[in-house]
Amino acid sequence: MSFLDILLDRTFAYTWIGFTLLFGLSATLSSALYFSYDEQVKGLVEELIAERMEQLEGLPLPDELLFAVIFSNNAVIALVSSLLSFSLIVPLLIIMFNGAVVGFLISAVSAEASLGPLLGVGTYFLLAPHGVLEVPALSLASSAVVGILARKNYPRFVIASSLLALLMLLHAALVEQLLFLLAR
């Protein structure tokens, strides 16, 4: 059985698509509920986002190597999600958390600029180019064990899906680096 046959397996495909949709749902709910969040919750999430931005901006790396930091961060998250995907709860929490942060970020940027939903849509479109690759890659990594369980014992599948996820994350990191540099 080829790698393509495994990717097209219904159980695996449904899981991969389900994880991707869960990310979108988490982002949408987080964005929609932004204004009902307690100020303490907003402060905590804004602090986490600001901390991440400071880490990226404070790096002594040339701009050309920023993608290496972004890629390694995403690769570690994908690896943890993949290795712990047998528990199902860890990948679910990782994907929901990442989706919630994206939704929160979109609404926070909109609220801060006082431009309402218009800027939120603009922020979404700035995030979308790398998210189109990053979210499915994270979902692919999270679905690895489900793919194995669906077809029993496919180490070749784990290697191939991991390589595909890493390739997608590499491209997403390059796009994210470009967007980060344009936003400065």
Task: List its traits.
184 residues, mainly alpha, 8 helices, 83% helix
Write the topology of this structure.
Layout: H1 3-7, H2 10-32, H3 39-57, H4 66-83, H5 89-112, H6 117-142, H7 144-151, H8 155-183
Helix pairs in contact: 2-5, 2-6, 2-7, 4-6, 4-8, 5-6, 6-8, 7-8
- Give the helices and strands as they follow along the chain: HHHHHHHH
- The total number of structural domains is 1
Mean pLDDT value: 75
Structural class: mainly alpha
**Rg over CA atoms:** 17 Å
Low-confidence stretches: none
The gross shape turns out to be globular
- Tally of helical segments: 8
Distance between the termini: 48 Å
Q: How much helicity do the residues have?
A: over 70%
Strand content range? under 5%
Query: How many runs of DSSP E, i.e. beta strands?
Result: 0
Largest sheet composition: none
In brief, what are we looking at here?
The chain has 184 residues and is an all-alpha fold. It has one domain. It has helices spanning 3-7, 10-32, 39-57, 66-83, 89-112, 117-142, 144-151, 155-183.
Describe this structure in words.
The structure is a single chain. By secondary structure, this protein is mostly helical. The protein has one domain (3-183). It has helices spanning 3-7, 10-32, 39-57, 66-83, 89-112, 117-142, 144-151, 155-183. Helix 2 packs antiparallel against helix 6 (117-142), helix 5 runs antiparallel to helix 6 and helix 6 (117-142) packs antiparallel against helix 8 (155-183). The model has no long low-confidence stretch (mean pLDDT 75).
